Amino acid sequence: MDSIKLWTEEEQNFYGKNVWRESTIPEEFTEWCTSFSGRTALISGEEQLTYGELYKRCIEMSSWLAERNVRRGECVLLQMPNSIGFMIVLFAILRIGAVPVLALPAQRASDVIALCALAEPTHYIGVNRYLSTDYGEVTDRLRSEQPQIQIITFSTDEDPDLMLRECRSSYPVEACHGSNLDIALLLLSGGTTGTPKLIPRTHAGYSYNYRTMASITGMDGDSVYLNILPTAHNFSLSCPGIFGVLSRGGKIVIAGSGSFDEGFELIARHGVTITAMVPTLARLWAEAVEWDEPDLSSLKLLQVGGARLDPSDAEFIMKRFGCRLQQVFGTAEGLICCTRPDDPDSAVLHSQGRPISEYDVCRIVDDEERDVPEGQTGELIVKGPYTIHEYYRAGDRNKGAFTVDGYYRMGDLVRLREDGNFEVVGRIKEQINRAGEKIAAAEVETLLLKHPCIESCAVVPVKDEVLGERICAFAIGEEVKLNEVRDFLMNNGLALYKLPDQLVFIDRWPLTAVGKVDKKRLSQIGAEAA
Ligand code: OOB
């Protein structure tokens, strides 16, 4: 592993005394498994594992991996679908003190190759196939382009829960006792295309992240968390996600897919109390509630985050699920904001919440990094006890992403409301620059959703010879003509220069690996459609 830029010495002393724990994540894992030994930790299909059993399986797996040369301080690229096996392998790698690089199951060969070139892992650990995805192309290309990487693939054919029963060994491994400021894992940054960026999260910072979220969401031994989003994503791994729930002795139910029929059944069967979704999925499930009439009475908290949630969708989702909604606005780089379960509806429906830690230092700034006047919109920049100071091996690419005094630039345009919560107005890059006029995609989207024929929409820039960028609106719903939509928007007070230049109806959204609407892909489709 290369070393990374950390907090200043002064910050480290302060956080070390007041904020962080001294332990590493695998040490905490051992504590959880010991304290909650007899309780159920994981459920997938018909399989169940207690904390004690999970611990035993992790130790066996770490011996098995160590025998195959997985070593402390080396990177291991891990790409597995959500499963009990994924958790066993993840905790086994952590126990050895190797550093898992968490690729998402939906990432294809070219992404994996790029990640390997950057992280230089000694191993790739994956599966042969899952649902409709065959990972043969990934492993074939790795064999020819990165022959030094050892490939371990588990077969999912006979054992869909990836219980990996064969992976036992008596090879001795001691649990690694590293420093809490070592890199625990490398997460992928949200960017969908181009060279990937790797996010080095330390044990101290990551553990603080999931422990704080576990306490805000009130996790305890009675909590039952339904894991739907890819486990490798920060939202479902630590907000509170898998780590946060396990740290309190709760149960994790692993869904095999994102489908609502399976999800509703699991919620009713296991008495699920909390789950996390992206807005597109939450809306879909909320619609299905009407005809499926599921029993969702056990559900206490529905977390929605990862992308903008329109207030009218938020209201619809909260009503249909019949439980508290929590908006989570966070990033794999660190900062997590959320509304609190006891916040009034006005905050839960209309804002994206506030930082989870009193030690998060957030500023809203203009192009010249000056703080904007109160209540004005600007870019959110942040530093604090769990936000990174640089990407792993990014060299000059770190420059644009951090300020000279160590703040991470979120790239999001936000406004601080009077109640102390942030409202995310858009992404800096989601501004459309139409002949020099800047248009926030979100403003047009909010008005478009008021149109009776439009169920959901996304507004993106499309390269244009005359305008530089034109405004392209994508919609799902009943087809209407561009002119009618423009008239409608104008009547609703939208400025003339913000009216869409192009309107494209589509059947379903192209999605990124975690299930957010893929706006880059939409820009391409818009260019091709013209
Ligand atoms: C989460 O993390 P990433 O790293 O995949 O993406 C971060 C970006 C943010 O900078 C923001 O642009 C967007 O995703 N975002 C939201 C949002 N939550 C994330 N935009 C509007 N409203 C929200 N609620 O996406 C992530 C990580 C941990 C918890 C939740 C989400």
Q: What can you tell me about this protein's structure?
A:
The protein has 2 domains: 23-400, Rossmann fold, CATH 3.40.50; 426-529, ANL, C-terminal domain (GMP Synthetase, Chain A, domain 3). It has 530 residues and is α/β, with parallel strands linked by helices. The longest helix is centred in the N-terminal third of the chain and has 17 residues, at 51-67. A 9-stranded mixed beta sheet has the order 2-1-12-11-13-14-15-16-17, with helices on both faces. A 4-stranded parallel beta sheet has the order 4-3-5-8, with helices on both faces. The termini are far apart. The structure holds 5'-O-[(R)-(benzoyloxy)(hydroxy)phosphoryl]adenosine. 5'-O-[(R)-(benzoyloxy)(hydroxy)phosphoryl]adenosine binds next to helix 8, strand 15, strand 20 and strand 21.
Give the overall form: globular
CATH architecture of the largest domain: 3-Layer(aba) Sandwich
Please report the distance between the alpha carbons of the first and last residues: 47 Å
The structural class is alpha/beta
Mean pLDDT over the full residue set: 94
Note poorly predicted spans: none
How many β-strands, per DSSP? 26
Which distinct ligands sit in these coordinates? 5'-O-[(R)-(benzoyloxy)(hydroxy)phosphoryl]adenosine
Spatial strand order of the main sheet:
2-1-12-11-13-14-15-16-17
Domain count? 2
Largest sheet: 9 strands, mixed
The fraction of residues assigned to DSSP E strands is 25-35%
In which range does the helix fraction lie?
Answer: 25-40%
Rg on CA atoms, Å: 23 Å
Annotated CATH homologous superfamily of the largest domain:
ANL, N-terminal domain
CATH class value of the largest domain: Alpha Beta
- How many helices? The count is 16
Annotated CATH topology of the largest domain: Rossmann fold
Protein name: Yersiniabactin salicyl-AMP ligase
Pathway: Siderophore biosynthesis
Organism: Ruminobacter amylophilus
Keywords: Ligase
